[in-house]
Design a protein that fits this description.
heterodimer, A: 417 residues, mainly alpha, D-Maltodextrin-Binding Protein, domain 2, 2 domains, elongated, B: 303 residues, alpha/beta, Rossmann fold, Alpha-Beta Plaits, six-stranded mixed beta sheet, four-stranded antiparallel beta sheet, 10 helices, 36% helix
Chain lengths: 417, 303
């Protein structure tokens, strides 16, 4: 046990003191700091500038009116409905309008024609812009009023009809996928990054000891099984340490900028993860890491040269990426209770990803969760055991990495002995 | 203190790496574990250090099971290896800690041995910044710093310049004097011949030859005769004429005549000739085989 801790400490300190770890942590902390301070920084800059902010070309609009409605009516209608835009009346044709956009005189030109015909000219509509829908809505409701008025309905009644609303209330018995999406996404990313970055680090660390032949001396002082567990746990602890730094930075910057971020709902939900979701996520991240790290350790013990590590770990990395992608797509599509996702919940190499998302965003049910976690735990122990056997065999085996079939054959004969 | 191996067998898959090997290595003596590449030396060493369990047979110290808490092994592997990218001090401390050494004691031992090997100035450097010979010395320090009871050195002289080789020789002699068990493995027979009292030669996992080096030499037939003196040319002529059926090979240099015989009987015949003709000679001696010759003979010259 003492030697296990010696290895654990050595691997942990090695990693925590390494440049990669320090730089990665710094980048994460600075990135989070900037992201969470962004509202505060922009507000500071804006308040310094005061009223002098020049009009952004994107926020300007020109109206060309060839419709049956009067120029003044249309102008006041649009300006009234879009107070954040600076709107001019101009007189040109469609080609002239296109030229104005090219010359960046205006952000948008609206060409009105006939009763219900219009053309919107702009350089491009931004991904998050809804201006075309807004203009459409304004003009449509104007057209509807016109039609209703033509039917002889009084002006008051027209407004009432067009502005009629429903008294609506949504009652969800399950979890709100929209509000849990952001933090689930972050938790999923944590799981993915830890497995990819730190799992591969386990493989590289084992292969380094092997290729540098330090292993030859190490195995004479400590049995390989203890060595492997010390290494995996040491690197795992360093990974947790890094997560703690990132989360700590997040919480600190969030609190520091609380009053400025208050309006940003997306960020708000990130810091309101329900406790049970958080606890189960931590369990899944830890178990998920170990399942993969043991596999990575076994692969690392089978290759003889550092150059072979990246190709050796490829199958494992593919499984991890595949699981991550499958879960991500289901998450984005809101299709979390499909047969595929249910299978993924119970298959140990995908279950950390699938269960994390499902229990966070839908109601998986306590027994399904416990069952999946239990299965994951049992698999983790079995994979740990097999990995230790392979490790024991692999660490002193040099030359071409053996095929899967050969490994099992050797494990079998070794068992008998 | 002595370590006994008794009927050790180890198989990997279908290959028997070590087949019924027994020997005893005594404290205060150097023991030579010899054999060609793949003869089973490294496997034997690893079984001594409990890296593998033997399939059959026992390994004991003073007829007791080896207690790894009591007995420390210092191992210098043939393929030297420590962490290339780590500070020398850090990795030596790690190895010492894995050998249950308290930190303070370990630091003192590291300093002592690096000083002795003239490496102290490199304590805070990364290993791969050192030359190959110096890296070897660091590795040697890692073996000695834990004050091992049993020292196992696999090809310790390879890669060392003559000065460092003699430093190593000196250190090994000191360790032997302290009563430690030193097990040598080497292809360089001259080094083994100088240091080792008892040897074992393995061939394809089996014992080809074992015992006290001197007794082994004496047990070889006395068929190599060396004569010096004024009349060696005449002796050559005479023996070639009269004893051609006994002679396997004969050669002469300015000072000495070397005769290899088929059987020991030829020796008396040669003595007869010399005394009958009253040839003037300075010396007549039976040359013992060198370890190199014994090794080649025992391993059938690589067949």
């Amino acid at each position: 046990m003492k030697k296990f801790f010696t290895v654990f400490k050595f691997e942990f300190l090695n990693l925590v003191k390494s440049k990669v770890f320090i730089v990665l942590s710094l980048i994460a902390v600075i990135g989070i700091g900037l992201a969470l301070s962004y509202p505060r920084i922009t507000e500071l800059i804006n308040s310094n500038k005061g009223e002098e902010t020049p009009v952004d070309a994107d926020m300007t609009m020109a109206v060309i009116n060839d419709s049956i409605y009067s120029d003044d009516d249309m102008f006041s209608l649009l300006q009234g409905a879009l107070p954040d835009y600076k709107i001019d009346k101009i007189d040109t044709d469609l080609d002239g309008a296109k030229q104005l956009i090219k010359d960046e005189e205006y952000g948008y030109v609206i060409y009105l024609d006939g009763e219900n015909d219009y053309t919107l000219v702009t350089e491009s509509i931004g991904l998050d812009s809804s201006i075309n829908y807004r203009i459409d809505g304004i003009l449509l409701s104007n057209y509807k009023s016109f039609l209703l008025a033509n039917e002889g309905i009084e002006e008051d009644r027209v407004d009432a009809i067009l502005n009629a609303t429903m008294e609506a209330e949504v009652f969800e018995t399950g979890k709100n996928q929209a509000s849990s999406f952001s933090y689930t996404y972050v938790l999923l990313m944590f799981l993915y990054m830890i497995i990819i970055i730190y799992g591969q680090m386990v493989a590289t660390s084992v292969a380094t000891e092997k290729s540098s032949r330090a292993m030859e001396v190490l195995v004479t002082t400590i049995d390989p099984v203890r060595m492997m567990f010390g290494k995996v746990l040491g690197i795992g602890a360093a990974a947790l340490c890094q997560v703690a730094i990132v989360v700590g930075a997040g919480v600190a910057f969030f609190n520091l900028n609380a009053e400025y971020i208050a309006g940003e709902q997306m960020i708000g939900t990130l810091f309101s993860i329900p406790a049970e979701t958080l606890i189960v996520s931590v369990i899944l991240i830890v178990l998920g890491f170990f399942v993969y790290a043991f596999l990575y350790a076994a692969v690392g013990s089978l290759v003889s040269r550092i150059e072979d590590v990246s190709s050796g770990v490829l199958p494992i990395t593919f499984i991890s990426i595949g699981a991550f992608m499958t879960v991500m797509f289901s998450m984005v599509n809101g299709n979390l209770d499909s047969i595929l996702m249910k299978i993924c919940t119970f298959f140990p190499l995908t279950s950390p990803y699938a269960l994390l998302v499902r229990m966070s965003m839908t109601d998986v049910g306590i027994w399904q969760s416990i069952g999946a976690i239990g299965l994951l735990l049992v698999t983790c122990i079995i994979i740990g055991y097999i990995a230790a056997m392979i490790y024991k065999l692999g660490v002193l085996m040099y030359g071409k990495p053996p095929k899967l079939k050969e490994i099992f054959k050797l494990l079998k004969t070794n068992k008998k002995a | 203190m002595e370590i006994q191996l008794n009927g050790i067998v180890k198989t990997f898959g279908e290959k028997t790496a070590v087949d019924d090997v027994s020997f005893t290595a005594k404290g205060g003596q150097a023991f030579g574990l010899l054999g060609r590449n793949g003869a089973g030396k490294t496997t034997t060493m690893r079984m001594i250090m409990d890296v593998f369990k033997a399939d059959e047979g026992t390994i004991t110290i003073d007829n007791q099971e080896i207690d790894r808490k009591e007995i420390r092994f210092g191992y210098l592997p043939e393929e030297r290896g420590l962490y290339p990218k780590k500070k020398i001090k850090d990795q030596l401390l790690y190895l010492a800690e894995l050998n249950d050494m308290p930190r303070k004691k370990a630091l003192a031992a590291i300093e002592k041995w690096l000083e002795r090997l003239d490496m102290k100035q490199h304590l805070d450097k990364k290993l791969d910044t050192l030359s190959k010979g110096n890296q070897q010395k660091i590795q040697l320090a890692s073996v000695l710093m834990i004050d091992p009871d049993i020292i196992i050195l696999d090809e310790p002289f390879s890669g060392l310049d003559p000065v460092n080789a003699s430093v190593l020789q000196e250190i090994v002699n000191e360790q032997i004097k302290e009563g430690k068990i030193v097990i040598f493995s080497s292809h360089q027979m001259n080094n083994i011949e100088e240091v080792c009292d008892d040897i074992i030669i393995l061939d394809e996992g089996k014992v080809a030859l074992s015992g006290n080096l001197n007794s082994i030499k004496n047990s070889f037939p006395k068929t190599h005769i060396q004569i010096t003196g004024r009349d060696i040319a005449k002796i050559k002529e005479e023996t070639e004429k009269k004893l051609s059926s006994f002679i396997k090979d004969i050669s002469i240099s300015e000072y000495e005549l070397d005769i290899h015989l088929y059987t020991e009987k030829g020796r008396d015949e040669i003595l007869d000739i010399i005394s009958k003709e009253s040839y003037d000679i300075d010396s007549f001696r039976v040359v013992k085989p060198s370890l190199n010759e014994i090794f080649i003979d025992a391993t059938k010259g690589g067949e």
